[in-house]
Amino acid sequence: MAADEPLVLGIETSCDETGVGIVHGTTLLADAVASSVDTHARFGGVVPEIASRAHLEAMVPTIERALKTAGISAKDLDGIAVTAGPGLAGALLVGVSAAKAYAYALGKPLYGVNHLASHICVDQLEHGKLPEPTMALLVSGGHSSLLLSADITSDVRPMGATIDDAAGEAFDKIARVLDLGFPGGPVIDRLAKEGDPAAIAFPRGLSGSRDPAYDFSFSGLKTAVARWIEAKRAAGEDVPVRDVAASFQEAVVDVLTRKAVRACKDEGVDHLMIGGGVAANSRLRALAQERCERAGIRLRVPRPGLCTDNGAMVAALGSEMVARNRPASDLELSADSSLPVTDPHVPGASHDHGHDHDHVHEVSKENLYS
Ligand code: KG4
Ligand code: ZN
């Protein structure tokens, strides 16, 4: 690690985790996270207003904890990065306001960055610089996309995305039907280990020869699983929870890995990165490894703690922005709940390349789990 590598603090508040990370070059120095997930659990999904309040309460203590862990003073920083979007408008606004306040008070450059590009860039903290190009499969509670990145600070191209539910959302909804609590991914992952993935043949969405090659759909699968469970219950039979979990999980990860490997092959890309909360799934990791090996593709998946939302990923992308001399954002930076994935960062007004969004007023994606 060179002494002149950028020292950047990153703030993430797009959903229910208040994350503050500190990165030096591609070395992680601190990753402090305060989660409000327990407060949302009884509602079966993230409640935006509760998330925003929790961010507000956790923000300053989490920043102080990160600085202490890293053993640095805020004045040593080379920049402050923050998730500018996409995400919950009110939640994003808390992080953006905090980042602006720190940047202004400390006289440091501010980098408003894209949450999805951060999920990809975080892998640099674990496996070193990203190869260019890299194919990325991003699967979380809010998004499921296949992205091709030639330069994570400036060039991210969408290959495909879900046309309905996100992969993590499907895990959460099936867990709700099975009364397993929220979030559903970790518990389904655990139960599936004791079940038979071939017990029930659940449908593979958008997998026909005429279907779009890289788009996903999980809503039909969700309905099929719910109907199957209802039928069992109506017949007065026990629901084999472990087999349902394993068979459902297999249907999701089969489609995800098949499409991701196909996209790599079609584009001649020999590296696949998987990120987002669902990348913590043990079966997804194993099947991706198996299929990538067979296709001669190198797989990169960060450790589970870096896959779910955190501040380190934002700091990782901010650090790359500084290293590549990308323009800083100005203090007019606003949260953009539907920031397109094609904008890895939000430069200052003088560098704006013309996309025009409704900024913090947009509410359409507020409840990602509705
Ligand atoms: O990236 P993330 O922390 O937040 C969003 O941006 O959405 O992802 C959270 C999602 C939830 O839907 C959760 O159920 C899912 O990731 N998840 C998992 C696992 N761990 C978390 N899904 C499947 N298997 C897991 N082990
Ligand atoms: Zn995320």
Give the structure's gist in a few sentences.
By secondary structure, the chain is an alpha/beta fold. It has twelve helices and eleven strands.
The arrangement of helices and strands along the chain is: EEEHHEHEHHEEEHHHHEHEHHE
Tally of alpha and pi helices: 12
Bound molecules: 5'-O-[(R)-(carboxyoxy)(hydroxy)phosphoryl]adenosine, zinc ion
Which class best fits the helix and strand makeup? alpha/beta
Mean pLDDT: 92
Give the termini separation. 44 Å
GO molecular function, one term: tRNA N(6)-L-threonylcarbamoyladenine synthase activity
Binding site for substrate: 138-142, 172, 185, 189, 281
Domain Gcp-like: 28-315
Region (Disordered): 335-370
Characteristic terms for this protein:
370 residues, alpha/beta, Nucleotidyltransferase, domain 5, 2 domains, 41% helix, disordered C terminus, binds 5'-O-[(R)-(carboxyoxy)(hydroxy)phosphoryl]adenosine, binds zinc ion, Peptidase_M22_CS
Description:
Substrate binds at residues 138-142, 172, 185, 189, 281. Its EC number is 2.3.1.234. It catalyses: L-threonylcarbamoyladenylate + adenosine(37) in tRNA = N(6)-L-threonylcarbamoyladenosine(37) in tRNA + AMP + H(+). Helices cover 41% and strands 18% of the residues. Residues 351-370 have low confidence and may be disordered. It has two domains: 7-122 and 310-365, ATPase, nucleotide binding domain (Nucleotidyltransferase, domain 5); 134-302, ATPase, nucleotide binding domain (Nucleotidyltransferase, domain 5, 2-Layer Sandwich). The chain has helices spanning 37-41, 48-70, 89-106, 115-121, 124-127, 167-177, 185-192, 219-234, 241-267, 282-295, 304-307, 311-323, and strands spanning 7-12, 17-24, 27-35, 79-85, 110-114, 134-139, 144-151, 155-161, 271-275, 298-300, 345-346. The chain is an alpha/beta fold. The strands form two sheets. Strands 3-2-1-4-5-11 form a six-stranded mixed sheet, with helices on both faces. Strands 8-7-6-9-10 form a five-stranded mixed sheet, sandwiched between helices. It contains twelve helices and eleven strands. It is globular.
